[in-house]
Amino acid sequence: MPEKRLRPRKSPGQQRALETRQRLLDAAAHVFSEYGYSAGTTNRIAEAAGHSIGSLYQYFPNKDAILVELSTAHARAGVAGVVRLLDGGALPDRLEDKIRLFVRAAIDNHRDDPSLHRVLFEEAPRPPELLEFLRAAQLRAVAATEELLAADPRVTVTDIPMAARLVVTSIESQVHRFTADAGLENVDAFENELVAMLVRYLTPQPPGPGRVDGDGPHPHPRPDHREPRITRPPR
Q1: Could you give phi then psi for residue 108, rounded to 5 degrees?
Q2: Count H helices, E strands: the chain?
Q3: Structural domains in the chain, sorted by start
Q4: Above 80 in pLDDT, residue 235?
């Protein structure tokens, strides 16, 4: 599909036109959430917005252009959430609490409508300008996370830049996958497990008594399962 067909037909300048455009986007979000990508037609979107199909086409050439607008808005909201955390003053002292803030921000960005987010990021087209925006947002998040990890003495993972990238991408991908599959059911348990997983990764402990490389902590040494030796009495 030509890239130009993913762009809005016009940028409304008057208040009434802005309101019409927003109603179309809100209706599209509802339609895509309920019907999915294939059945989320422009006719359904126009009907849900209370406008004619001709009015819709004055603003958007097709439903893919609408999806691009919704995807961009979702991505911008996610970036804004991270920026608020970074610019909001002192972060918590505990590493676990810092990680939890970023996990919760990602969950909150997917909380409104998990079904819509699944359509946006699994079925919607991604033109070059959206991909570039997402790449720039991820680089900013990775750089900020790297700075936080490098300043925390409890972080003992050796490759801080790689760790920052893994933390950022793990949070986004795992939150998206969980909310797309399970909605918000058991979201608190999911949050706790994701935070614990990332903290364990960032603070690896050297092997010690009762531990084996690659294993978690063992409260007791592993039992010896070898067959006991049988001592025969002398004849």
Answers
A1: -60, -35
A2: 9, 0
A3: 3-202 (1.10.357.10)
A4: no
